[in-house]
Amino acid sequence: MSIKDFTDKVVLVTGAGSGIGREAARIFADQGALVYLADVGAHGLAETKDLIAELGGKVQAARVDVSVESEVAALVKRIAKEAGRLDVAFNNAGVSGQAHRIEDYPTADFDRVIAINLRSVFLGMKHELPLLKRSGGGAIVNTASVAALTGPGGMSAYAASKHGVHGLTRVAAMENAAHGVRVNALAPGWTETPMVVTASAQNPGFAQLATTAIPAKRGAHPNEIAAAAVWLASDAASYVMGQMLVVDGGMTIGGFEL
Ligand code: NAD
């Protein structure tokens, strides 16, 4: 059993045009997988595709809005037609949304965050699961967040969406464990990606989190999060089902030092 070996595996990564998704796609390709990159942003998608191709990896890219069912269905159909199978799906695309207290949160913005972060995971799994099962089983990893365990003020839509990802993951794990598909979630803490850079620009207090609220006294490099996603998807995690792996530099320990 090797964590490293994804030779001849077909892996789908959403949100692959940036941050955690880009890094995970690079690792999967490095370990021998044919990686399908999906992202709504054409520029980031092309950059990730070029990066992996330059490193000698097998890669395909698709511009997809993960909150739109017809686009998700078409992507999975394309993978089935071209690659004939799917072994791993990393449903990772997401947005943070703006920070507002609930009474001020624009309803359309709330709906948008829920659609991109939560509905997308439902749609992804709905269309990926039949192909994963036809391929003889596999693994799904859904990106949640430490916000699936906490109540960050101002982030109602984000926290609700990520609590939802945790719940959906557990249900999917229950429904599919006996069919050879393992489903787990990943809960990153503060990770140095464009998402955090944008959030920090909008809210200066956010940037101080890394040095105050995180025992590790730093944010994660995207690689430290992506490595955990790859492990969850690998055969080394063959008995891990319906769990949410928290990778947060100790942010949610919730203790204190005397
Ligand atoms: P990022 O902004 O670097 O990357 C997110 C990617 O998702 C982008 O390429 C973006 O274009 C894509 N995306 C956004 N909406 C999309 C849509 N509708 N369809 C397809 N693609 C879409 O952010 P990241 O930090 O790499 O975030 C990846 C995941 O990790 C997200 O689900 C995020 O909520 C989660 N997360 C991040 C942090 C952090 O601190 N960065 C912490 C916890 C959880």
UniProtKB/TrEMBL annotation:
Its EC number is 1.1.1.-. This is SDR family NAD(P)-dependent oxidoreductase. Belongs to the short-chain dehydrogenases/reductases (SDR) family. PANTHER family: DEHYDROGENASES, SHORT CHAIN, ESTRADIOL 17-BETA-DEHYDROGENASE 8-RELATED. InterPro entries: KR_dom, NAD(P)-bd_dom_sf, Sc_DH/Rdtase_CS, SDR_fam. GO terms for molecular function: oxidoreductase activity. The keyword Nucleus does not apply. Pfam families: adh_short_C2. Gene3D superfamilies: NAD(P)-binding Rossmann-like Domain.
